[in-house]
Amino acid sequence: MWLLISQLGLLITCCPRIDIKLCIIFGGKDFELSIYDPKGSSTSKKVTCSSSLCAQRNQCLGTFSNCPYMVSYMSAQTSTSGILVEDVLHLTTEDGHPDSVEAYVTFGCGQVQSGSFLDVAAPNGLFGLGMEKIAVPSLLSQEGLTADSFSMCFGDDGTGRISFGDKGSPDQEETPFNLNPSHPTYNVTVTQIRVGTTLIDGGFTALFDSGTSFTYLVDPTYSNLAVNFHSQTRDSRRPPDSRIPFEYCYDMSPDANASLIPSMSLTMKGGSHFPVYDPIIVISAQSRFICCSFLETENFMTGYRVVFDRERFVLGWKKFDCYDIEETNTSEEERHPVSAPPAVAAGIRNYSTPESTKDVRNNNSLTSVTLRSCHLHVSLPFFFGLVSILTLLS
Fold it and tell me: How far is CA 199 from the centre of its chain?
């Protein structure tokens, strides 16, 4: 089993190379994690400095020496460095007649990790999903295996699926990317925020990112959002607590369904709406309480298939059942009628997974691939670890 952190802003996939066994607890179950070992793979090849994918040739000792890589992060002096290698990614088609697909991908084999990588971050590495040519979606497209597009789908229990080549459906909502040619990212424009019955105007650009733990909002957007959320929440606000990052937390009503909180949605450039179906998080201490989690970004993507179309340069999204593979070929309206969230959302979701769903869903968080017009299903199981959605840029 592999536990990779999917990262939309990362240009390269990185895997640590360490000779220890890792074990995690996910959904109440123990999983032993595999560590990538190039010596244990008959298909692993080192990438030389002569490769067009070698971006740090200035660090090379010679044309045919191993190509180095180095990725640094802004938080906690976190970095990873090592050499580039090439190996096979095993995929399976998602149409009615599954076929195996072997794709060669280039990624970083980590030799030196620092900061959070020595603790809990990315036990098996980072799955690079950026727009650069060395990212996995780019490599699959360059090999002619998929369209240059992919989707990510996040379920309620923290697991999900990636579909490479998925261009979405005609009925999905969309907004264009704001492209910077020198450093292309999944940057979009938010024109308006609705909190309950209040509309907050004022456009800003934001980065859809899956490797950031929190959404960072700057004023006046943060203050407007927080004040309007608080004014429409009926529960009693708790005093600030330095142990948690959320500013607006509330004591839960004994009857969870009586804890009424305002709904939230984003209006994107072009007029499409992105409802936030789960804007709160339940924290269990001596007494349970809820916090407004517009900072905690997993909630923003939950329940959606989010499409990153790099051919049309648009972000698409649609409410989706991430566990129903067949739904890819069937109109969601036929399977599960979709309704807009109410103005005031009742009912609280905590982060415990019902026993009835653990065995079915936690054993197979499936990656998918789509071959141009054919939907494909991947045999690579992994979990989405940290997931996030919006980082405010301006």
Answer: 27
